[in-house]
Design goal:
There is one protein chain. By secondary structure, this protein is of the alpha+beta class. It contains eleven helices and 14 strands. An eleven-stranded mixed beta sheet has the order 2-5-6-7-14-8-13-12-11-10-9, sandwiched between helices. Strands 1-3-4 form a three-stranded antiparallel beta sheet. Helix 2 runs antiparallel to helix 9 and helix 8 packs across helix 9. The longest helix has 27 residues. The radius of gyration is 22 Å and the shape is globular. The chain starts with a strand and ends in an 8-residue tail after the last helix. The mean pLDDT is about 95. It holds the Pfam family FemAB_like. This is GNAT family N-acetyltransferase. InterPro entries: Acyl_CoA_acyltransferase (IPR016181), FemAB-like (IPR007434).
Length: about 375
């Protein structure tokens, strides 16, 4: 097996990548990652330079791609959602360069999924081992400070640990479908007080004269994408954040992945006042981007959470992931779930320091998740 680096997905046929990625997770599809490249979101100027890693067998002219890793050379830590700014600061205070670094991730998307994409029949252990070894070799060849694999599934996290990478534990809040027949069936499991609060939030939106509409990708015209983007950009700027994604990205996403698009629009007096973009996988809905006007009580919860839960129940989806962080999701039926990443640092002393830090951090995260579960809105079983 040999390793090869691609500096653009345009260097590989879409079908080759998608055969490895499968259909379960839309963020791993060629179309999503290519849209980021084509629209200027993942470029050296934004700090995301593609260095996609391929593991191949055979020789030139007769190569078979066995695995792929979405890999980027990073010169900042924006858009990763696994925060290492303190590590970069510590390097700088010691007169060392933390950037550039190598990151295996889906840019701007805190979504767990395979980072070693392979669809070879049978045991893939040898191929995955080769991919991890090749990523480490590339980091060393480029004399980089570090290598980071973000939002990895448990099995791949364990394999990365076997190569000396350090496991980091985080958490998110996910909604799980317990074969609910409708939203009231979902709320029936809540304590009375918390059930009443959610019904009040939903009623306040309806009483304000706001109506909601779910649009699939086929219904999204260029004009509607512009409406959504204006909301997204307005809300990002309002919170003083960086709008990582461009208008062109969303337009290309609409053209290339219509079957994965679930857009929820809120209207008041026939005028759009908010929108939330979700991507649909095989059994999971992923809530990603939203924006809206101020002045409507409960509009964010209705647009981003409740109407999406309605959609999941109606379409038999098993899980709804509504993005990173957000303790306010707990009271609305989203329970804490552990997330994982894996990290290698070339400097021995910093490697040891980070290892010690992650051990303490992991204990704190696990204790906090236990505490969160004790405050679940669901009625306790006797």
């Amino acid at each position: 097996m040999q390793a090869r680096v691609l500096h653009s997905l345009d260097q590989l046929p879409a079908d080759t990548w998608n055969t490895l990625a499968g259909r379960d997770n839309p963020f791993l599809r060629y179309e999503f990652l290519a849209a980021l490249e084509h629209s200027g979101c993942t470029t050296p100027a934004t700090g995301w330079t593609p260095h996609h890693l391929l593991i191949e067998s055979g020789h030139a002219g007769q190569r078979q791609v066995l695995a792929a890793v979405p890999l980027y050379l990073k010169n900042n830590s924006y858009g990763e959602y696994v925060f290492d700014w303190a590590w970069a600061d510590a390097y700088a205070r010691s007169g060392l360069a933390y950037y550039p670094k190598l990151v295996a991730a889906v840019p701007f998307s805190p979504v767990t999924g395979a980072r070693i994409l392979t669809r070879v029949p049978g045991d893939t252990a040898q191929i995955e081992e080769a991919a991890i070894a090749a990523s480490l070799a590339l980091a060393k060849e480029l004399s980089l400070s570090s290598l980071h694999w973000l939002f990895t599934p448990p099995a791949q996290t364990e394999r990365l640990e076997g190569h000396g990478l350090l496991r980091r534990v985080g958490y998110q809040f996910h909604w799980h479908n317990q074969d609910y027949t409708d939203f009231d069936h979902f709320l029936a499991g809540f304590s009375s007080r918390k059930r009443k609060k959610i019904r009040h939030e939903r009623r306040s939106v309806a009483d304000a004269g706001v109506t909601l509409e779910v649009c699939g990708g086929a219904q999204m015209t260029p004009a509607l994408w512009d409406v959504f983007y204006d909301f997204y950009h307005l809300t990002i700027r309002k919170h003083g954040a960086i709008p990582y994604l461009t208008r062109a990205f969303f337009h290309e996403l609409g053209r290339s992945m219509p079957d994965n698009i679930v857009m929820i629009f809120a209207h008041h007096q026939s005028r759009p006042v908010a929108a939330a973009l979700n991507l649909r996988g095989t059994d999971t809905l992923y809530g990603r981007y939203w924006g809206g006007e101020d002045g409507y009580s409960g509009l964010h919860f209705e647009t981003c959470y409740y109407r999406a839960i309605d959609y999941c129940i109606q379409h038999g989806l098993r899980r709804f992931e509504a993005g990173a962080q957000g303790e306010h999701k707990l009271a609305r039926g989203f329970l804490p779930v552990a997330t994982y990443s894996a990290h290698w640092l070339s400097h021995p002393q910093f490697y040891q320091a980070v290892q010690d830090y992650l051990r303490r951090e992991r204990h704190g995260v696990e204790s906090y998740m236990t505490e969160l579960n004790e405050h679940s809105p669901f009625k306790r079983s006797c």
